[in-house]
Design goal:
The chain is α+β, with helices and mostly antiparallel strands. It has a single domain, classed as Glycosyltransferase (Alpha/alpha barrel), CATH 1.50.10. Helix content is 40%, strand content 11%. It contains 13 helices and 16 strands. The strands form 7 sheets. Strands 6, 7, 8 and 9 form a 4-stranded antiparallel β-sheet that branches. Strand 8 and strand 9 form a beta hairpin. Helix 1 packs across helix 10 and helix 2 runs parallel beside helix 4. It is globular.
C-alpha cells in the first residue's frame, strides 16, 4: 500500500471519530461536545477532544471529507455551546463534561491545559472558516482570565482547580504546556507575563545522546501536543532552546529506548515504538513512557503496551521512523485496525495478545493534526496566522537567535 493512501486512510479514520462521536443533537445543551473515547463511555465528553475536533473540522473540509458549509456550521454551533452553555469558571472548562448537558462530569477538575487545547482548536477553526467562527473563537479566547489560574508568587500556573479543594499542584516541570504560556501572554484581555515561559524546571537528560529536556513521566505526548498547533521550527527561546529540535531528540530517544527494551518486551522494537499515555490492558495509564523520567528516572511505567499515536504523533519530528511504524501496524496487526483507523494501543506481552477495544479522542487528535502538518502544514499555517498567537510568541521571546547546542552546553 503506497504511503499517500495509508496516510489518507488513517487520517480519514481519525476525522471520522470527531464527526461521529460528537453530540449532534441541536436541541441539546451539549451540542458539539466530543466524546472522550469510543465505544462505550457514552456520557463523558472531553474538552480537549472537543478542541482537537474543532481543528479536525478544518482538516476534513480541506481534504473534502465534509463540505465546507457543513464543517463551518458544526464549528460555529460547537462554539456557541462553549460560549453560552458549557459550564466554565473564569473561562476555564472542566476536563470532563456530560455529553448532553455540558456540565461538570463527576469530580472532574477545572483544567488549564485542556482549556488551552480547546482554545487552540477554536483559533484554528476561526482561521479557516473566518466570519462568525473567527468572532466566536476570539470571544472564547478573550473570556479566559489566565491570571486567575496563576500563582503569582511562584509565577506558575496551577495544575487544576476544584470547588471542593481549591487549586492544586503547579506546572513546575516541562510537559505539554508550552501552548498555555503563548496563549496567555498573547491575550488582549487577561495577559500574563511572558517570563512564565521560563518558570518551570527544564531538566536535561545527560545520559542520552543527543541530550534533550525531558518530561516527568517520559510520555511522548508531552513533546507533541503544543507542536500540533504551534510551529516551533527554526525558533529558539531566550535561553536558546530549540523546542522543535528538542522534540526530535525526544522522539528518537523514545524509539531507541524501545529498541533497547525489545529483549524484555516483544511488543517493542524499531517499528513498534512511541511510549506515551494511553489505554492499557488494565485501563488508562498516564505514566506510560520511556526513560528518562522525573528526577531519578523512576516515574515512567513500561509493560509492553504501545499506542500508535506515540509514533504517529511524532511524524513531523521523525517522518521515516513514524511511517515505518504506520506501515507495520496496518500490515502486521489487523487486530489493531478498526472503524476509526488504528485503535488506541496493543500489547503482545500479555496472554492472550491484547488489542484495545477503544480509541481515545486526544490520541486520534494528535495523530490527525500531526499527519496533516507533515503533509501540508495546514494547522500550523492557520494557527500561526492569528494575531494574538503572534503576539504571544513575541512576548515569551521566541526568535531565531540561538542554537540548541548553546542551550545545552
Amino acid at each position: 500500500m503506497e504511503i499517500t493512501r495509508l496516510l489518507d486512510i488513517e487520517s480519514k479514520g481519525c476525522f471520522d471519530f470527531f464527526l461521529a462521536e460528537a453530540n449532534k443533537d441541536m436541541d441539546s445543551p451539549g451540542f458539539g461536545l466530543i466524546r472522550d473515547r469510543a465505544p462505550d463511555f457514552y456520557d463523558i465528553a472531553s474538552i480537549a477532544s472537543t478542541g482537537f475536533g474543532l481543528t479536525a473540522y478544518a482538516i476534513g473540509s480541506e481534504r473534502g471529507w465534509i463540505s465546507r458549509d457543513q464543517a463551518r456550521k458544526l464549528a460555529s454551533a460547537s462554539l456557541d455551546t462553549l460560549l453560552y452553555k458549557a459550564e466554565h469558571t473564569h473561562g476555564f472548562f472542566y476536563h470532563f463534561m456530560h455529553m448532553d448537558t455540558g456540565k461538570r462530569y463527576g469530580r472532574s477538575e477545572v483544567s488549564v491545559i485542556d482549556t488551552a487545547i480547546a482554545v487552540c482548536g477554536a483559533i484554528t477553526a476561526g482561521g479557516y472558516f473566518g466570519g462568525e467562527v473567527a468572532e466566536k473563537a476570539a470571544q472564547l479566547y478573550g473570556r479566559i482570565d489566565w491570571n486567575w489560574f496563576r500563582d503569582e508568587g511562584k509565577n506558575r500556573f496551577y495544575m487544576g482547580y476544584t470547588s471542593e479543594k481549591g487549586f492544586s499542584g503547579w506546572w513546575d516541570f516541562y510537559a505539554e504546556q508550552l501552548m498555555m504560556y503563548i496563549l496567555a501572554a498573547g491575550s488582549d484581555t487577561h495577559p500574563v507575563p511572558g517570563d512564565m515561559f521560563y518558570s518551570f524546571n527544564r531538566r536535561i537528560s545527560r545520559d542520552t545522546k543527543p541530550e534533550f529536556i525531558h518530561s516527568w513521566f517520559g510520555s511522548l505526548f508531552t513533546h507533541q501536543f503544543s507542536h500540533a498547533w504551534i510551529d516551533f521550527r527554526n525558533k529558539t527561546d531566550k535561553w536558546g532552546v530549540d523546542w522543535f529540535e528538542n522534540s526530535v531528540r525526544a522522539s528518537i530517544a523514545n524509539r531507541e529506548y524501545c529498541i533497547r527494551m525489545r529483549t524484555y518486551f516483544k511488543t517493542l522494537h524499531a517499528r513498534s515504538w512511541g511510549l506515551t499515555a494511553c489505554e492499557g490492558p488494565w485501563g488508562y495509564q498516564g505514566r506510560y513512557g520511556a526513560a528518562p523520567s522525573a528526577l531519578a528516572n523512576d516515574e515512567h511505567i513500561i509493560d509492553g503496551t504501545v499506542p500508535p499515536a506515540g509514533a504517529l504523533g511524532s511524524i513531523v519530528f521523525t517522518p521515516d521512523e513514524s511511517m515505518e511504524a504506520l506501515f507495520y501496524y496496518y500490515r502486521e496487526h489487523p487486530g489493531l485496525v478498526g472503524r476509526y483507523g488504528l485503535k488506541d494501543a496493543y500489547n503482545l506481552d500479555v496472554s492472550p495478545a491484547w488489542y484495545s477495544p477503544y480509541v481515545i479522542g486526544i490520541d486520534k487528535g494528535i495523530t490527525l493534526l500531526m499527519i496533516e502538518n507533515y503533509r501540508s502544514g495546514l494547522v500550523w499555517d492557520l494557527f500561526m496566522s492569528n494575531e494574538n498567537v503572534r503576539k504571544g510568541i513575541k512576548e515569551v521571546g521566541l526568535s531565531d537567535k540561538y542554537s540548541m547546542a548553546t542551550a545545552l552546553a
